[in-house]
Amino acid sequence: MTYSKLILPVVVGAGLINGCAGGPQAHGPAARANSRSQTAPLSPDAATAATTAAVKQVIATEQAFAKTMASRDFKAFVTFLSPDAVFFSGTTVKHGPAEVAAQWQPYFEGRKAPFSWAPDHVEVLASGKLALSTGPVYEEGKIVGRFNSVWRLEADNSWRVVFDKGEAVCSTKP
Fold this sequence. Notes:
Elements: H1 3-7, H2 28-35, H3 44-70, H4 74-78, E1 81-89, E2 92-95, H5 96-104, E3 116-117, E4 121-124, E5 130-139, E6 142-153, E7 159-168
Parallel strand pairs: 1-7
Antiparallel strand pairs: 1-2, 3-5, 4-5, 5-6, 6-7
Helix pairs in contact: 2-3
C-alpha cells in the first residue's frame, strides 16, 4: 500500500496553509455578533453581513488549523478539536479529541509535513453556528484527495472541528 493510500483516509482536517497556528480564537466583533441572542431577527443585509463574516472566520480558522501541520505544531492542532469531534478514516471512526489526537500524532513526527490541505468552498448556516469546509488535499504539490469538515461555533466563540472525513481522488483512465 502506498504512503498516499495510508494517509488519505486520515487527511480530513481542514484548512489553508497560511494563518496563525495559535489555536482557535474568537474573531473580533463578528464573533461577538454570532454569540448574541437570536431573538431579534436580522435584516437581510445584516444577515448577509453576518454570514459573510462567519465564512471569513471559518476560513481563518482553517488556515490556522492547516498551519499546525505545516509548522509541525501538534499541541496547537489539538486545540482545534471539538470535545465532540468525530474523524472518519477508511472504515474506522475516532470519537473525541483523545482518539483523534492519537491517530494524527504520527503525522507530526517528521520535519516535513506529509500532506497539506486548502478549502475551496465554505458554507455557513444562517444561524452562524455551523459550517462546512471542503477542498483538495495535497501531497508533494499533487492533489491526492478531498476533505470535508464540519465546524461548530462553540460557547467560547471559537470554531472547532466536529466532523471530518476525506476521500481519495478518483483516477479514471480512458
